[in-house]
Structure formats: structure tokens, C-alpha cells
Design brief:
Largest sheet of chain B: 6 strands, mixed
Number of helices of chain B: 0
Number of strands of chain B: 11
Distance between the termini of chain A: 34 Å
Radius of gyration of chain A: 13 Å
Largest interface: A-B, 28 and 21 residues
Structural class of chain A: mainly beta
Number of strands of chain A: 11
Strand content of chain A: over 45%
Number of helices of chain A: 0
Order of helices and strands of chain A: EEEEEEEEEEE
Helix content of chain A: under 10%
Structural class of chain B: mainly beta
Low-confidence stretches of chain A: none
Radius of gyration of chain B: 13 Å
Oligomer: heterodimer
Amino acid sequence: DADVTQTPRNRITKTGKRIMLECSQTKGHDRMYWYRQDPGLGLRLIYYSFDVKDINKGEISDGYSVSRQAQAKFSLSLESAIPNQTALYFCAAAGTGNTDTQYFGPGTRLTVL
Amino acid sequence: QKEVEQNSGPLSVPEGAIASLNCTYSDRGSQSFFWYRQYSGKSPELIMSIYSNGDKEDGRFTAQLNKASQYVSLLIRDSQPSDSATYLCAVKAGGYNKLIFGAGTRLAVHP
């Protein structure tokens, strides 16, 4: 039973399209994160949220927006997708038990043509 | 800019050997350190966390932390081909639960 789920798992889209990636978690974690991963660059933080009313930019937030619809849901939007946003996107959650540990979803592979 | 540095590898070791993975970090105030394993195309999976100077052992894995020298390492004893993956070092930055990740070290264990 996965703690963190992401939809879709794969998405191919065209330049200029609006895309939403969704993340849900079932363990009551209060903190949620969105990362992107590119080959050789590791994980880079896009946005993070500590509760429904708290949204913070990460190191690479330009071109992205997020919404924390509920404690369990955190979605990432690309308002106008561009090819250099092609990457693997991960959602993570933390906060229950050991609050430092982040648990990752399975990832969404996004391709922008 | 707070940084976490890892050798990208690949680190190639024979089956049964000890694999040693290293990580250095720039923020002297960091208090929490993590090692994640990531198989190709999959999500990162937590292996170890360490908070105090010294060694922490969990099965075949040992994490070592030296805050004075600002490095953290992961030893994998009796390496198996199934250990072949990328290992990500992560360091908690600032007062919030925000992790800074290294780019990862690719480990290849050959039979």
C-alpha cells in the first residue's frame, strides 16, 4: 500500500499546453514537496508546503505553480509547458513519525515536445 | 548556496566486497543526514538516516558522520548485484524540513 501516489505516471504533451501533475498521500503527513530530476543533476526542489495555507518556492519554481487542495493533496501545474521541462517529477511527503524523513511517490515522467 | 557533493561514479565493486560512498556538505549548521537508494527510473528509497557523529549500522549498511569535517559516508558490506543503483546523499537545510540532495553516486556491483 503506497503512502504517496502520483498521477499520471507518464505524460507526453506539446509546447504551450497546460499540464497538471497530482500527488496524494494517505499517512497524514503535513509536509509535501515537488522535485524534478534530470540526468546528472540530482533532485531539485520546485515547491514545498507545510500545510494547506503554507506554500513556499524552492530553487527552481519559475514556470511552475502549485496548489495544496487538502492536507493529503498537492498538485503541480505547468501553465505553458516548454521542452526543457521534460524531466522526471517526484512528489514527497514528510511529517509523521520522524519528521525529517521524506517519502517519495513513484514519479511522473513528463515529455514536452 | 548550500551544496551537497558526491562523486558521480560509477563506482564498480566485485560481489562480496565493501562499497564505500562519500558525501560532503557545505552548511556547517546541518543536523540531519540521509542516504537514499534509487534504481533506474524508480523513486528514491530511504536507506539510512544519521544525526550524531560516529557510525550507525543497519544490517549490511553503515552510515558514518563527521560534522567537523563535514562529510557523511555509506558503507555497504558484502555487496550484492541487487545493490547496483544510484545512492543519493541528502542533508537537511535550515530550520524547515527541506532537504538538499547531492547528484548521486552510481554503484555497480559485478558478479
